Amino acid sequence: MKRRMNGGQALVRSLAAQGVAVTFGVPGAGQYEAVDAYFDTDGIRYVSCRNEQPTTQMADGYARASNRPASALVVPGAGLFNACGGISTALRSSSPIIVISGSPEDRLKGASSSLWLEPITKWSARATSPAEVAAKVPEAVRAACSGHPRPVYLEVAAPVLTQEEEVEIAPPATIEPPAGDAAALERAAAMLSDAERPLILAGTGVHRSGASAALAALAERLPAPVATTTAGKGAISDRSPLALGHALRAYAPLVEFAQSRDVVLAVGTQAGPAGLLGVDPDRVIRIDLDAGVLDTGVGAADQALAIEADARLALETLAALVRPGRAQDPTAAIAALNGVRFGDTEQLQPQRSYIEALRAAIPDDGILAYGMNQMGYYSRNYYRAYAPDTYFDPRGNLGSALPIAMGAKVARPDTPVVACCGDGGVLYHIQELATAVLHGIAVTVVVFNDNAYGNVKRSQQEDFGGRLVGVDLRNPDFIRLSESFGVRGARVEDASALRRELERAFAGDQPVLIEVPVGELKRVY
Ligand SMILES: Cc1ncc(C[n+]2csc(CCOP(=O)(O)OP(=O)(O)O)c2C)c(N)n1
Ligand SMILES: [Mg+2]
């Protein structure tokens, strides 16, 4: 049924109708009517941020925690440029976020921001009437969520928001992910059934497609060990006797193990086993939704196969098709490898104790968003993830842990969510503590404070003969700073105190900042 409305209403009502439940934004030019529409549109929430980069980072965190799309609404020009850091992170984390901006009136006939956003968005369009807004939103959501999930951009020209016309709000787009070519899946099942030493490498795609149960079923049936990429952590529970942990090139015993396998199935990973672990491409089967990454690292031999398919559907099919019995029981080898991995790091203190305190305090379904800091780097290999969608990677973007964690907390308000920050990274977006207080986002922020861009500093010490440039930091008093935002601050000096403060934070429903002073930290590897 058509109803008369302005372009702003068409936008926000369409987003809500497509199941986009939140917009992170900074209001302003070219979006007044759109922001006004949140006042009385059901099913969608508007969270105002204090800078545009966090709008896209929070949308990214929301998407990762919920596997649902989220949106960011920002002013064109500087606002959209500010948002780009978060868009590029979402691109790398395969997060379906919809970035929306206006364009100044005189741009209607000129260049669109789509042009310069092209390298970091999968799809973009410009809407030039309210009806077109309503038509483009479902397209945007479909583009973001189908195939390889990724950021998209929709530009709505300012005059369109005020313009009124009869508009039809479309029902939710249905997305049918590809199940994969049946013959190819049969061949893959036969190859896996015949393998004596199969290995599975799981990536982000397993999270995005909700494929964890199917992954566990296939792994148990064969049986096969499962390693994950960094962002894939949690695809299989690290409690499983089949979990090999993080696939890490620097960890020689694991690389050797991977290279000795006769068939390696890689699912939902852009890097793939050839790139990540140096596995012979002729022994690789890849399953991916993205034709662009699918063929890379897959050899020409009979034993190599690339299948374009949704991870969950393909893994369900494979789990049903494989004939178990041929593969050797890998559990002893896995236990030995994990023993070496964890044994090796006994001397790596205090990282080990602090990460174990985090693990002990955070419940199995709780979320850890780590940042580009030394404790975060340590967590990649030694934080055990017990459930899908519980371990978030910053994808190289310093400062993203706090806003990503906040977006995740908006998606899952009843789940503890921790941002693992350094003193360098946390000050990128510390102002978002104001957002957390205003919008009741009870995130827990842990700041490991070494008064330095510590990992860069260590590199200068070890690789540049101690010629320190630009790495020592002068910090605010983190406790007084957080208290000035209305956020409880606590300083802890050891791992057991950290655990207690985390548990106290999770028991409350307020944002909390915990500062952990640390000295210089050793290199992880
Ligand atoms: C946007 C961005 N800028 C710069 C960097 C480079 N960088 C990576 S880690 C780091 C230092 C981080 O310092 P801190 O957050 O205090 O963590 P620490 O290394 O001290 O543990 C820097 C500058 C980056 N990864 N991303
Ligand atoms: Mg630091």
Bound molecules: thiamine diphosphate, magnesium ion
Main sheet: strands, sense, barrel: 6 strands, parallel
Strand portion, in percent?
15-25%
Number of E strands: 20
Enumerate how many helices there are, as a single number.
Answer: 23
Low-confidence stretches: none
Distance between the termini: 62 Å
Shape, please?
globular
Structural class: alpha/beta
Tell me roughly what share of residues is in helical segments: 40-55%
Mean pLDDT: 95
Biggest sheet: strand arrangement: 3-2-4-5-7-6
Taking all Cα atoms into account, the compactness measure Rg is 24 Å
Keywords: Thiamine pyrophosphate
GO molecular function, one term: flavin adenine dinucleotide binding
Family: Belongs to the TPP enzyme family.
InterPro entries: DHS-like_NAD/FAD-binding_dom, THDP-binding, Thiamin_PyroP_enz_cen_dom, Thiamin_PyroP_enz_TPP-bd_dom, TPP_enz, TPP_enzyme_TPP-bd
